[in-house]
Amino acid sequence: MRFGLHLPNFGPVGDPKMLASLAAEAESAGWDGFFLWDHILGDPQWREPMVDPWIALAAVACATREIRLGALVTAVPRRRPWHLARETTTLDHLSDGRLIVGVGLGFPADAEFEQFGEEGDVRRRAHRLDEGLAVMAGLWSGEPFAFDGDEYQMRETVFLPTPLQRPRPPVWVACRWPNRAPLRRAARWDGIFPEHAGGTRLSPPELTELLRYVRQHRERADQFDAIVAGRSGELADTELAAYAAAGATWWLESIAPDDPLTAVRERISAGPPTVDRRDDIG
């Protein structure tokens, strides 16, 4: 099991230089990943400082050498997929192949879509996500690629360079348990980031059930990541090991938007949970 940090792109850490500094501290403390939320507003009433996660991740890439990084999760339906293909390829090169691409529908629909005149219907967003991923994969290939879908159309195009990671950066798909359609979508890619509709994490038995369903719909037998997020200080003594036994490959330590900066730094500098006994849990 690997251990990462999951931070908002707003609030006390909503500054690109601050995030780059925290990422460097995280790398020194032994964390394996540094992942940012991808919000553009979050709530129409918010007056929080907020940064663009992709520009902030470029700063993170320049401030680190080994830690994996990415946005969890990117709202593909509110981004042009060809633009996102360029951004992800550029960041993969800038980070020397450390990018992980987290994707989802985007949330909440009213603030992140309808506030700006964008379509918020969940089925429409799901369709845009599937087509957007197809476009991105085609452009990542570096081969001539055209697309004629319901949501997106593009003439034959070649995007170069290709990402350093081949055939592409890993793609982790967010889902809300127990909905099954997002699980089938995730099965086509490289990992899954599940939670309950209320934002709470799955239990180890629920994760076991989820991964069993994903395996039934997965055509490849290569690495598939399962990501669980939460606060390790709230876990029972054996719960982290139970997640590893259920199939979790990553634990992401959740940083809340209202966590004071001093507390965030203390949590980062303390290092990953059970960092001294990783071999005991996976």
List the helices and strands and how they pair.
Layout: E1 2-7, H1 16-29, E2 33-36, H2 53-63, E3 68-71, E4 74-75, H3 81-94, E5 101-104, H4 109-112, H5 122-140, E6 145-148, E7 153-157, E8 171-177, H6 181-187, E9 191-196, H7 204-216, E10 225-230, H8 239-246, E11 250-254, H9 261-269, H10 278-281
Parallel strand pairs: 1-2, 1-11, 2-3, 4-5, 5-8, 8-9, 9-10, 10-11
Antiparallel strand pairs: 6-7
Commentary on this structure:
The protein has 282 residues and is an alpha/beta fold. The protein has one domain: Alpha-Beta Barrel (TIM Barrel). Helices cover 37% and strands 19% of the residues. The protein is built from ten helices and eleven strands. It has helices spanning 16-29, 53-63, 81-94, 109-112, 122-140, 181-187, 204-216, 239-246, 261-269, 278-281; strands at residues 2-7, 33-36, 68-71, 74-75, 101-104, 145-148, 153-157, 171-177, 191-196, 225-230, 250-254. The protein has a nine-stranded parallel beta sheet with strand order 3-2-1-11-10-9-8-5-4, with helices on one face. α3 packs across α5. The longest helix has 19 residues, at 122-140. It is globular. It starts with a strand and ends with a helix. Mean pLDDT is 94; it is low at 275-282.
Features:
single chain, 282 residues, alpha/beta, TIM Barrel, nine-stranded parallel sheet, two-stranded antiparallel sheet, 11 strands, 37% helix, 19% strand, globular, disordered C terminus
Strand order in space, largest sheet: 3-2-1-11-10-9-8-5-4
Question: What is the β-strand count?
Answer: 11
What's the CATH H-level superfamily name?
Answer: Luciferase-like domain
Mean pLDDT across all amino acids:
94
Strand content: 15-25%
CATH class: Alpha Beta
**What is the general shape?**
globular
Count the DSSP helices: 10
The main β sheet shows up as: 9 strands, parallel
| Elements, N to C (H/E) | EHEHEEHEHHEEEHEHEHEHH
> What's the architecture in CATH terms?
Alpha-Beta Barrel
Helix content: 25-40%
Q: Whole-Å distance between the termini?
A: 5 Å
| Secondary-structure-derived class | alpha/beta
Question: In terms of per-residue confidence, which ranges show pLDDT below 50 for 5 or more consecutive residues?
Answer: 275-282
Give me the CATH fold name.
TIM Barrel
Radius of gyration: 18 Å
Number of domains: 1
